[in-house]
Design goal:
The complex is a heterodimer of chains A (about 250) and B (about 270).
Chain A (H helix, E strand, L loop, with lengths): L2 E12 L2 E12 L3 E5 L6 H8 L7 E6 L2 E2 L9 E4 L13 H6 L13 H11 L15 H13 L5 E5 L7 H17 L3 E5 L3 H4 L5 E6 L1 E7 H6 L1 H7 L1 H12 L1
Parallel strand pairs in A: 3-8, 3-9, 6-7, 7-8
Antiparallel strand pairs in A: 1-2, 1-4, 4-5, 9-10
Chain B lengths: L1 H5 L3 H26 L5 H19 L3 H22 L4 H23 L3 H9 L7 H20 L1 H9 L1 H6 L4 H23 L4 H15 L3 H26 L3 H23 L1
Helix pairs in contact in B: 2-7, 2-10, 2-11, 2-12, 3-4, 3-5, 3-6, 3-10, 3-11, 4-5, 4-10, 7-10, 11-12, 11-13, 12-13
The chains are: A alpha/beta (about 250), B mainly alpha (about 270).
């Protein structure tokens, strides 16, 4: 397995208040990582830093062997941001939203997109919605369309920022099972931000727990046995998280 | 038939062509501005254009030639202020807009004597469009349409979700700069045609009208341009038939089209 993301000693401050402190970890190709932590822990900041949207105070980030500052292979990365950022009155059809995932890519990467869009929409069970207005779809369908927008890039690394917030449990299950399938069958590396540590443990094999600095990074099973995490959460909380994972 | 006879006159034909080019430009650019909640940028830039026209009259330079670069500069200033200063974009528009109009009023009061010329720019005169202004509009329309067609997908991604567009590798800063520049040039040209007070209507109304009916983004752009051209045709026709001011008639025609589309959209529901 090759290392596709290397984060080293990253610091980010907002008005001199540290948002991230000396965060270091590395992700290998095919990993499925849950990025968890309390509110204000720096999860979204870390994701934005990886995507080059947040300047680093110190440290370095390497993507696919290239330093972030000079990184050019953006076609290998797809991002699904938090839901509330969209203008719900935007007059876009489902196919227009999905095809916008190809924006900024070289012409070569766009070949066959018209065929691919149908395959992806069928796989995500929203093929019948292709020409409908995006704003008229349910929350769950909209998230699947945005996942399709990410997948049309055929990414090697898929980064999702709390993609299932505001989805009902049934739709959330479906969404997670789609991601598991993509990870297993296409070997797509997934980093998913969530504030629900228990939930992510049922899908992701690894957990990165952040609270401005890195609290834990490793297999979910190790997290359950970790003394450090027991101290951090207290016996009862950790028991709850790991108990849910067992089911 | 009587209306068609009007177009035997050179200046009327010029007004119709210039108005239609302006309509296509403002209609299409307006969609991007309205969707990104930048509707009032047209108003702000028009106010700057007013100050620039006053400066042109003071210096004895044809106002159009001085208002084009100054309005473009103001667009950059709005962009930079919104990006770097610690306040929202609408505050940046407000500041630049107020400075523009205050500058115009001070120059007019200092100079005295060209107030009539200056105030004719408040409500514009489409019928007084010159050949050089028409050629400028033609070039601007061609360049703008090529830009929008070539960068269609990145522009869509940017309008839909700027943060995600950045993460997709879209050159957000470059596209924002060009969009603002094209808007500034359109406003500078539109001030002569419809006046400082009505420019923003040309950018906002056709876009708002199209948004009531369109089922996708491409249709929104085409419908906005179409509604804007219709407004110019109806407005000019009303202006010639009833001896009304052209700019105000175009805006009123645009407003009636908006009401019409809103009613259709309401009945559809």
């Amino acid at each position: 397995m090759s290392v596709i993301l290397k984060v080293e000693q990253v610091n980010i401050d907002y008005n001199r208040i540290p948002a991230l402190k000396e965060v270091s970890f590395q992700v290998e190709s095919g990993d499925y990582i849950g990025l968890a932590g309390p509110n204000g822990a720096g999860k979204s900041t870390l994701v934005k830093a990886i995507l080059g949207l947040e300047p680093l105070g110190a440290g370095s980030i390497e993507l696919f062997g290239e330093q972030l500052a000079s990184f050019s292979q953006w076609e290998k990365i797809a991002y699904l941001p938090q839901k509330h950022q969209y203008n719900q009155l935007f007059p876009a059809s489902v196919s227009e939203v999905v095809l916008s995932g190809l924006a900024g890519l070289p012409r070569k990467a766009k070949q066959g997109a018209e065929i691919r869009i149908r395959e992806i929409l069928t796989e995500l069970e929203i093929a019948s919605e292709e020409y409908k207005l995006f704003s008229r779809l349910s929350g769950g369908q909209q998230q699947r369309v945005l996942l399709a927008r990410a997948l049309i890039r055929r990414p090697e690394l898929l980064i999702l920022d709390e993609p299932t917030t505001a989805l009902d449990p049934q739709v959330r299950e479906k969404f997670f099972s789609i991601l598991s399938k993509i990870n297993k069958e296409k070997k797509t590396t997934i980093i998913m931000v969530t504030h629900d540590t228990a939930d992510i443990g049922r899908y992701a094999e690894s957990l990165l727990y952040l609270d401005r600095s890195l609290v834990f990074f490793g297999l979910f099973s190790d997290f359950c046995d970790s003394k450090k995490m027991q101290d951090y959460f207290g016996d009862f909380s950790q028991h709850l998280i790991c108990h849910q994972h067992d089911h | 038939m009587e209306l068609l006879n009007f177009f035997q006159y050179d200046f009327l034909l010029r007004a119709l062509i210039a108005g239609s080019l302006l309509a296509v430009l403002a209609g299409v650019l307006g969609v991007f501005l309205v969707l990104r909640k930048l509707s009032l940028i047209g108003d702000g830039l028009a106010h700057v254009s007013f100050g620039a026209v006053a400066l042109g009259l003071l210096l004895g330079i044809y106002p159009f030639y001085i208002s084009v670069p100054i309005t473009a500069l103001a667009a950059f200033l709005i962009f930079r202020l919104g990006e770097k200063a610690k306040f929202y974009g609408d505050a940046a528009i407000g500041i630049v807009s107020a400075v523009g109009i205050a500058g115009g009023v001070i120059i007019a009061s200092l100079a005295q004597g060209f107030n009539v010329d200056l105030f004719s720019y408040l409500f514009g005169s489409l019928l007084a469009i010159s050949w050089s202004e028409l050629y400028f509009l033609l070039a601007l329309t061609v360049v703008s349409l090529i830009f929008i067609i070539y960068y269609y997908r990145p522009l869509f991604a940017l309008a839909f979700d700027e943060t995600a567009a950045k993460a997709l590798g879209v050159k957000v800063k470059f596209l924002n700069t060009i969009l603002l520049l094209l808007t500034a040039l359109t406003v500078a040209a539109a001030v002569k045609a419809v006046g400082v007070m009505l420019v923003s209507a040309l950018l906002i109304l056709p876009a708002a009208t199209a948004l009531q009916l369109a089922k996708n983004f491409k249709a929104t752009l085409l419908m906005a341009a179409g509604f804007a051209v219709l407004s110019v045709i109806f407005g000019l026709a009303a202006s010639l038939t009833y001896n009304l001011p052209a700019g105000a008639s175009i805006v009123m025609a645009s407003f009636f089209l908006f009401i019409f589309s809103y009613l259709i959209s309401y009945l559809r529901k």
